[in-house]
Every structure is written in C-alpha cells, then in structure tokens.
Specification:
The complex is a heterotrimer of chains A (638), B (167) and C (287).
Chain A: H1 2-23, H2 27-52, E1 58-59, H3 68-89, H4 93-112, E2 124-125, H5 127-157, H6 165-184, H7 188-206, H8 212-242, H9 249-254, H10 257-274, H11 282-286, H12 292-301, H13 303-313, H14 315-318, H15 322-343, H16 348-369, H17 372-403, H18 414-417, H19 419-433, H20 438-451, H21 456-482, H22 497-533, H23 541-556, H24 559-562, E3 585-587, E4 593-595, H25 604-607, H26 609-636
Antiparallel strand pairs in A: 1-2, 3-4
Chain B: E1 9-14, H1 20-27, E2 41-42, E3 51-55, E4 58-59, H2 60-71, E5 78-82, H3 84-88, E6 98-100, E7 110-112, H4 119-152, H5 162-166
Parallel strand pairs in B: 1-2, 1-3, 3-5, 5-7
Antiparallel strand pairs in B: 4-6
Chain C: H1 4-32, H2 42-52, H3 61-81, H4 86-106, H5 110-141, H6 146-151, H7 156-159, H8 161-174, H9 202-226, H10 231-251, H11 257-282
Helix pairs in contact in C: 1-3, 1-9, 1-10, 2-9, 3-4, 3-9, 4-5, 5-8, 5-11, 8-11, 9-10
The chains are: A mainly alpha (638), B alpha/beta (167), C mainly alpha (287).
Chain lengths: 638, 167, 287
C-alpha cells in the first residue's frame, strides 16, 4: 500500500508547490520553495525506487465510485474552453477547429461509454515507470533549481519581457505533476488527461516571452499536439465502442495484437506528434524560442519522452506487425534526416533540437520493432539522452547569457573564456556520441537490437548513416569549444550558484550513469524485459569491463593537463609566415589589416533544412499513411 | 650519434628568387638525384622541418616572413642559403628594395654558391648542414643536462653561460 | 574469449611492424617512380629524430591530445587482437581519432582547422561502411567477437564479398592514400599545408606517426579477418591489398571532399543493402 501513497504524493506535491509559486511574492520565498520542493521530489522518487524496484509491476487497488474521472473530465473541458478562448483571441482557426473536434469526441465518450469503461486499476508502477520517474524527479528538479538563476538573469537582460516568473514556475511544477501522473497512470483516460495537461503547459511556456514569434510557435506546437490528442481521443472512443474491457494499459496489452492494434496505432500517432517526429518536427524547433529551462525540461528530457514512453509501453502490440514496421521506419528516417539537418545548423539550440528529434526517432524505431533487444536499447536511449541533452541545454543557456549569443561560431575558444562551463559542455557533447558514454552504449544496443529483428538490416543501414552524421556535427562543435585562443576575457565569474549546482550535478550524473548502467540493466531493465518480452538482453561482462576501463582513462587523463609541468616554448600558428597578432590579425595585401576567422562547415547544399525537411515530411507522412492502412487492413482481415 | 642526420626534413622558401635556384632545389627531389634516399622530405611546414632552405634575397615584404618561419621551427635547426642572392644579394645587391642576403635577418649555417646552383652543390650543402645539425643537437642535449643540474643545485638561470641562450 | 596476452603483444610489436610497412611503402613507391628511395628503416629514423626535437608547442593541450590519440589507438588495436567485440573496436577507434581532430582544432590555426573539418568529413565518409562490414561479419558468423570470427572455419569473405570491396574502397581513406588523402598525408605540399598535423611538431608529431603505424596494423588485421580461415591466404591477401593501395596512391590525384564522401556513401549503401539483404535471405529470413 505504501507505494500508492508515494505515487499520489509525487503527483499532488508538485501541484501544491505550483500553487505556492502563484502566491509567493518575494524572490527569496520563491527560491526556498523551489529548492525545498526539488529536494523533496528527488528524494521521494529515489525512495520510491528503493522500495519498489525488486517487486515487479505494482498496481493500485481500485476504489469504486472514484470521483477522479469526473474531476478530470471537468478539468479537460475547462482547458478546452481556455484554449478555445485563446484560439479565438489570436484568430488561430485550425486550433479552434481541432479543440472543438477533440472536445466533442471526449464529451461523446463521457456520456456514452465512460460509466461502462472498466479498469482493473488506475495507478501502477513498474521498473520502466520508475526509470522515468527518476528522470522527472531528479533531472526535472535540477532544471527547476537552475531556472531560479537563469530566469533572474533572463529578466535582467530582457527588460521588455513582462516578468511573470510566478506563472512560469507555476506551470513548470504543474507540468512535473502531470508527467508523474502520465508515467504512473494505468487508466488510459488518466494518461490522456495528463497528456493534454502537458500539451497545455508546453503551449504556455513556449509563449512565455509573448513576442509574436513565440506566440506563433506556441500555437504551432499546440495544433500539432492537439492533432495527436484527437488521435488519442479516437483511441479512447474506439475502446469504449469496442465493448471490450481495455481501458487499462495492462488490459490493453494483455488483449493481444488483433484487438489492441487499432487503439495502439492511434495512441502511437499521438506519441509521434508529442515526440516531434517527422512530419511534426517543426514545432520542436520552433519551441527553441522559449527560455532555456523550458527547452531542457519539456523539449528534450521529459515531455517529448512522454511520446516515446507510450510507444515503448505499447511496443508488445507493435512488434512483428506491418504497423510496427511502418512506425519504426518513421522513427528511423526521422533519425536520419534530422541528423542531417543538424549538420547545417549554426544556432546551438537548433542543433540540440534536431538532435533531440533524431534521438527520439531512434527510440521510436526501437519501439516499432519491439523485440526485447530493441526495447532494452530504447530504454537506455531514453535515460542517457535525458541526462546528456539537459546538460547541454542548460550549458548553452548559461553560455548564452555570458556571451550574448547562441551561435556555435561565437563559442570559439570557450575553453579559455569559460573553462568550467566549457568542460561541462564537452562532457555533454561527449556523452552524446563518444564511447564509452551512454548514448554510444545505447546506439550499440540499438544496432544489436536491429540486427536480430526481421528485416533489421534496413534499420541498421539507416542507423549507421545517421550515426556518422551525428559524429560530424558534435565533433565540430566540440572542436570549436576547445580551440585555445590567446585572446578572450574570462567571463565565467558571474554564473549563478543555482545554475552551477544543476550543471555540476548533471555532469556528475553523466559519469555515474555510464558507470552504473550495468547495475541498472540487471536490476531494473532485465526484470521488466523478462516480464513483458520473455527474454533479456545485456552486454557481455568483458565489454562492460573494457568500457569501465575507458571511462576511467577518460576521467583521469584530462587531469594531467592540470599537473604542474615545465612550460614549453610557444610557437605561433602557421599563417604562411605572416606576422600575426594574438587575436589572429595579420597584414593582408596592400597593407590592409585582416582577421583570420574560422567557421565550421555547414554543408547547407547537402544538408540544408530547406532541402531535407520536405523530404522528411513527405516520406514520413507516407509512412504514417501506410501505418494506418496496415492497421485497418489487419483489423479487417485478422 | 643522433637521428638528426638520418631524417632531415626541409622547408624550402623562395624569398625573392628568380626561381632558378628553386627549380634546381626541386630537381634534387626528382629521380635523377633522389634526395629522398637520405630521408629528406620537403615538408613545407616550418614546424615539421629541420633544415630551412632559402633562395633569393631579403626585401621588405619577406623580411618578417623569413624571421617568422625561422622562429616557428623547433630546435635544433639549420639554415641553408642557396644561391648567390640568398648569400649576399647577388646581382640585385645594389637595388633599392633589396636588403641583402638571408643572414641580414637570421643566422645562416651553410652558404651554397651559384647562380643558379647545381643540384650537386645543393646536395653538398645539405650534407654539410647535416653535420652542423648533429653538432647542434648534441649541444642542445648538453645544455639541457647542464640546466637540470643547475636547477637541482638551486642556482638561478642567469648563472648559466651565454651560449645556451643563443640556441 | 579475450586473450590479454595478444593485446599486449600488439601494443609492443605493432609499431615495429607498422613502421616496417611504412618503410616498405616508401621503397615501393620510390621504385614505382623510378627512384631508389630511402631505407625501409627510414620511418623509425624519422620518429627517432622527431623525439630528439625540441618540444615546442602552439598550446599546452596539444601534447595531451597527441598522447591520447596514441593511447586509445593502442587500446583499440589491443582490443582487436585480443579478440574483443568488433563494434567496440570501431567505437574506440572513433574515440582515438576524435583526439587527433580536437588537437588540430585546439591550435587555432586556419590550416589545421580546415584539416580538422576535412578529417571529420573523412570519418563521416568511411564510418558507415566500416560498421556495415562488422554487421556483415556478424551475420556471417553469428558473433561480433574478433576471436570467433577469426576462428570461423569457412571463408568469411565469400559471405560478404560486396562488403569486402566496399571496405577496400574506404581503406584508401583510412590509410590516407590518394585519391582520398584530403585531410593530411605523407606526401609533399598540400593546399592546406599539412592539414590536421600542421601545428604539431617534435615529440607530439612522433606520437602521431607511431599511432599511424598502430592504425595500419589494425586495418591490416581487419583485412586478415576476411580471410582468417587460412592464415597463408590471409597473409597473401594483406600483402596484395596493401600493394594495391600503394598502386592506387601513386596513380591517382587527390579528389575534392564532396566526391570522397558521396562515393563512399554510395558504395556503402549499395554494397550494404545488396550484401546484407543477400545474407539475410540466405539465412532464411532470420539474421
């Protein structure tokens, strides 16, 4: 019984914090409430893990005549009205249409089938939920702490933007609450409710700065996610109309592919929109106008993970079906194309956005294939990506405040200007593509997962090309940061303590998770896989040892730079023999002073957004179409 | 015995040469003379080079460049002035824009005469330079050892003799 | 089964073998060009000389990067020859090369910078093919471990001839031979001076040389793996392949990076799909 109380605490406590945030007037109150809440949430998630990790899937007992369903319906309608009002106010007709359709569907459901929809249990927790809860509870809390320092500076620098920090933090904590609800909910209606709440939070936070661009991008995100919401509502209606008792996730998964495929495909489509897979990728890229903590929390480590979370949950239904394959191909091609586009981007946040889309695509591909090895890879990808990407987003946010730019070419020589911050970014970037760090392990697992799947070699080929592309854009960014320029003021001093705390913690987490992932795999992932797929995947012991060796080497070696040593004679860089000043100025022809400026290759003629995005949109739209056709086909001819 | 003489890498720079001596330098790399047998590689990068082969004389444009290239060469290194222009200014010595030979800017170790030099003379000059290179290497090692001893004995660097600083 | 001893043997012996291969390379090249060429021990003298030079640097991190490059390359090769996981070998190889690239970036010099970007393009060009080769070997022998693949009694190359040809194509890139020596090479002047290695000198450059020897032996090991069922045939294959690379090197001019990347990728896609699909269906629809 204990665990149910923990689950409810985790869902409701952030709400309480959120309400306090609305009323807290002074900054010092806000700071303390956020910090204390963050610590509480993190500790409770860890406590939940400790008390439940070895118990398999635990389901809450059903309380008859629960008012929660009704409460949720009322809240949904209120949200719908709110969105309708905003849609009318800003004249966004597609949003109005979508919210009306969605509300109509849910009203129809509520009055026709809600009372007859039976679930075995509303809340549950298993190993996978625990993992996601850790991500929400630890990384989410760290990001909220980071926001304290970040938003303070944000408003100092952007005097024109109205300071609505109490609303900001209110929405952030409501979002955390909704995410916890999402991963602990077994009742699909509950999942839908929390899903919609996250859509709303994302919409509010993207539009925080109230500029025209932000407002437009917020509505863009809204309509795409509402489209997914309609699909989700469609799934719920289908379940209601089917007459089977499928409203619980456990019931749905147990009912077998033949029955569950249609709702699974519809919910899967919702997952694709939430995870910004192509053709719905533009909302995530547009969401980068939001303040950095929003990008870190919602649009890389947590909310978009909800999309892939539900896909991984439904993977047993997808595996081995044409629907699943089409879904997997959507993910795979999104991975490939988004990685390509990322090469051509010079804005750091856009690179991170496209990289996020790409990695989520990889998770979707694994989920679509749905073998035990693929799911193992998928969960590893989720974990490691959340850590590294949030670290990168937070670093970029802090760096942006200091150097007033998000362009990668402006981060030249960051290791000299902001050594500690540059080191964090390097750790984050290394964590995204280098052995022995997490993402590399996950990609390795994905290769293994794809290879043994039917027709897996197609996915392997797509994966290796995408992977080569990611190497290119990460390494060139890393090189820029590590250039040792002789000029450059040391601007690190004024970084806020809360920002440091979050950054250092995440950097530490990167190392620790890479170190302990074998333990996580054995204790959490294997029972989960065994329960749901009947088989376990693991890396061999030899390989684990070797990677730990590499990790230690990588930890210890950079310290050698700090060792005292005799200074060597310094030579100037080769500039054809020309006399060059410290900041790379030389005398060009006719005695004109020039500066040597080096910028990255962006290869826009190959990987430009204008070129690749249409390709991705058409390809993935076609694949989604195939996915639905295959589902219907299978439904008609079981 | 050092490895210096066995693997001399050159950087060849045309200061203001008419290209006559340059062509002869490049001829040394052709199959007819094939200096690669001696391990000589034309690197074109001062940081990789041991021998600085200069043709042509110093004028205002290349004064700084010759100095910079020489400074960017790790020690030990030697300079070979190829051709009469590099040695003293040659037929252009009296010109208003010519300062003279290479030794106006950097210390030269070997002068190779000729206008244009024959490849045989150039190779001869390089071989002589190799001997000087070896000497410099030996001296570098001795100086480094002496410095270590001084440091251990607690003496300050000023007490070390003048010659060490010059190299 | 990983045998630590073989790894150690690699770390100690590979530089010698690699250096000799490099020396033979120069000798054969010279004879192809109608010259006599240096002694086959010349590379050792080159490295010896480099270590005798003053350790002057552009910045203090360069030595660290050069050393890490060597360390991880030795580690990668040791892992390979000890019989470890082929994918992990490839990932460790990437890791070591990133150090070279970062070292070039750190110098803040235009030539070295362009060299680094081109080096990344090279890596992007050959990496798909190399991983697909490993995947092909897995599909042929059911294992990623070098020890298992080497112990396989049937000729692996007969299962993956397409991938073998593709691998040979990208081998030219990895060995830094024309027409694909776009980031640095051992030859004379390049349009970007020495590319990646422009700003390295003295002992750091010596370490980079030694690392190239390690890498050469590792790559020859890869080639060997295709023919591992018969050591004599494998040795012949290695020799023939390397001589063939020297021939290609001497008869081709360097291409632009666009051609290098496009052609490598095209070959990887074509060979990958064709060969892996064939293997897939040969195995009866399971991998």
């Amino acid at each position: 019984m204990q665990f149910v109380q923990l689950l409810i605490f985790l869902i409701l406590f952030p709400l309480v914090t959120a309400l306090f945030m609305l009323v807290a007037k002074k900054e010092i109150e806000r700071t303390w409430i956020v910090k204390l809440s963050a610590v509480a949430i993190a500790m409770i998630t860890i406590w939940l893990l400790i008390t439940t990790f070895d118990k398999g899937a635990l389901y809450s007992p059903l309380i008859p005549a629960e008012p929660s369903g009704l409460v949720m319906f009322i809240l949904e309608m209120l949200i719908a009205v709110f969105i309708l009002y905003l849609g009318i106010k800003h004249r966004k007709y597609h949003v109005i249409a979508l919210i009306l359709i969605q509300s109509a569907m849910m009203i129809f459901f509520e009055f026709s089938f809600a009372s007859s929809a039976e679930v075995t249990s509303n809340l549950f927790v298993d190993e996978f939920s625990n993992i996601l809860a850790l991500i929400i509870g630890i990384i989410g809390s760290l990001i909220c702490v980071y926001s304290l320092g970040y938003m303070k500076h944000f408003h100092e620098h952007h005097a024109g933007i109205p300071d609505k920090r109490n609303i900001f933090f209110f929405v952030m904590f409501v979002f955390l609450s909704a995410m916890f609800g999402l991963v602990f909910a077994n009742n699909i209606i509950w999942v839908y409710f929390f899903w919609e709440v996250t859509t709303l939070c994302s919409f509010l936070l993207i539009g925080y700065t109230k500029t025209e661009e932000a407002t437009n991008n917020a509505f863009s995100a809204l309509w795409m996610n509402l489209l997914g919401g309609i699909a989700f509502a469609g799934a719920i209606l289908w379940i209601g109309m089917s007459g089977h008792s499928l409203m619980g996730l456990d019931q749905l998964l147990a009912s077998g592919k033949a029955i569950a495929l249609v709702p699974a495909a519809l919910i899967g489509f919702a997952g694709l929109t939430k995870a910004a897979q192509m053709p719905f990728s533009s909302w995530l890229v547009g969401a980068m106008v939001a303040p950095t903590p929003v990008s870190a929390l919602l649009h890389s480590s947590t909310m978009v993970k909800a999309g892939v979370y539900i896909l991984v949950r439904l993977a047993p239904v997808f595996s081995g079906t044409a629907t699943g394959y089409a879904l997997a191909l959507v993910g795979a091609f999104t991975f490939l194309i988004a990685s390509g586009i990322a090469i051509s981007q010079s804005n750091a946040k856009r690179v991170l956005a496209y990289s996020t889309i790409a990695n989520l695509g990889l998770v979707v591909a694994c989920a679509g294939i749905g073998t035990y090895e693929a799911i193992w890879a998928a969960i590893l990808l989720i974990v490691f990506h959340a850590i590294s990407k949030s670290l990168l987003f937070l670093s970029v946010g802090t760096v942006e405040h200091r150097i007033r730019s998000r362009e990668i070419d402006d981060m030249n020589g960051l290791i000299v200007r902001m050594p500690k911050l540059a080191a964090m970014m390097v750790i984050g970037i290394a964590g995204m593509f280098l052995a022995p760090f997490g993402m590399l392990i996950s990609k390795w697992a994905a290769i293994r997962g794809f290879i043994d799947a039917p027709f897996g070699f197609i996915f392997v080929i797509i994966l290796v090309f995408g992977s080569a592309m990611t190497l290119f854009f990460w390494a060139k960014w890393m090189g820029k940061i590590l250039t040792v320029t002789s000029d450059g003021k040391h601007v690190e001093g004024e970084v806020d303590r809360s920002e440091w705390a979050a950054l250092v913690s995440l950097a530490g987490l990167s190392f620790i998770t890479t170190l302990v992932f074998p333990l996580v795999s054995v204790k959490l992932l294997e029972p989960f896989l065994l329960e749901n797929y009947g088989n376990v995947a693991r890396l061999s012991q030899d390989n684990i040892l070797i990677m730990i060796m590499m990790l230690f080497l990588l930890l210890l070696l950079p310290l050698s730079i700090l060792l005292p040593h005799r200074k060597h004679r310094h030579l100037a860089p080769y500039m054809g023999g020309r006399t060059t000043t410290q900041d790379m100025r030389f005398s060009g022809s006719l005695g004109v002073q020039k500066k040597a400026v080096m910028s990255n290759y962006y290869l826009t003629s190959w990987f430009g957004e204008a070129k690749l995005r249409p390709l991705g949109i058409w390809l993935c739209s076609a694949l989604i179409g195939i996915m639905f056709i295959a589902t219907v086909f299978r439904g008609m001819f079981p | 015995m050092t490895f210096m003489a066995k693997s001399p890498w050159i950087i060849h720079y045309d200061a203001s040469s008419c290209n006559g001596c340059d062509i002869e330098v490049l001829a040394c790399l052709t199959p007819m003379y094939d200096v690669e047998r001696f391990g000589i590689i034309n690197t074109g990068n001062p940081k990789h080079a041991d021998i600085f082969v200069v043709t042509g004389s110093i004028n205002e444009q290349n004064r700084e460049i010759v100095k910079n290239l020489y400074d960017q060469m790790p020690r030990p290194n030697v300079v070979v002035a190829v051709g009469i222009c590099a040695t003293s200014g040659g037929v252009f010595r009296e010109c208003y824009n010519v300062a003279g030979g290479i030794d106006k800017v950097i210390p030269v170790d070997v002068y190779v005469m000729g206008c244009a030099c024959r490849p045989e003379s150039i190779i001869d000059g390089i071989v002589t330079a190799l001997g000087i290179l070896e000497e410099k290497r030996t001296k570098m090692v001795l100086d480094a050892d002496a410095k270590e001893e001084h440091r251990h004995a607690g003496l300050r660097p000023e007490h070390i003799s003048k010659t060490e600083g010059a190299q | 089964m990983i045998t630590f001893v073989w790894g150690l043997v690699f770390v100690l012996i590979a530089p010698v073998i690699g250096g000799l291969i490099a020396g033979i390379d120069r000798k054969v090249t010279a004879h192809m060009q109608g010259r006599v060429g240096p002694s086959i021990l010349q590379p050792f003298w080159d490295v010896g000389k480099l270590f005798e030079k003053e350790n002057a640097v552009v910045n203090e991190t360069q030595i660290f990067y050069a050393f890490c490059y060597t360390l991880f390359m030795a580690f990668t090769g040791a892992l390979f020859f000890a019989g470890g996981d082929l994918l992990l070998v490839i990932f460790a190889l990437t890791l070591s090369q990133i150090f070279l690239v970062l070292g070039a970036y750190s110098a803040n010099s235009p030539y070295s910078y362009v060299g680094a970007e081109r080096e990344l393009l090279q890596i992007m060009a050959y990496e798909p093919m190399v991983i697909l080769t490993a995947v092909g070997m897995y599909m042929a022998t059911k294992s990623f471990n070098v020890s298992d693949i080497a112990a396989s009694p049937f000729p692996v190359v007969l299962f993956i001839p397409g991938l073998f040809l593709g691998f040979l194509y990208v081998l030219t890139i990895k060995l830094r031979k024309s027409p694909f020596d776009i980031s640095t090479s051992h030859h004379a002047h390049q349009e970007i001076v020495k590319g990646v290695t422009t700003e390295f000198s003295g002992p750091s450059l010596g370490w980079i040389e030694i690392t190239h020897w390690y890498e050469t032996v590792l790559l020859m090991g890869f080639v060997w793996l295709f023919f591992a069922f018969s050591p004599i045939l494998a040795l012949v294959a290695v020799i023939v392949v390397y001589l063939f690379e020297i021939l290609i090197d001497n008869t081709n001019a360097r291409v632009k990076w666009q051609l290098a990347v496009k052609s490598s990728w095209a070959i990887a896609v074509v060979m990958g799909i064709a060969n892996l699909a064939a293997l897939y269906f040969l195995n009866g629809g399971i991998s």
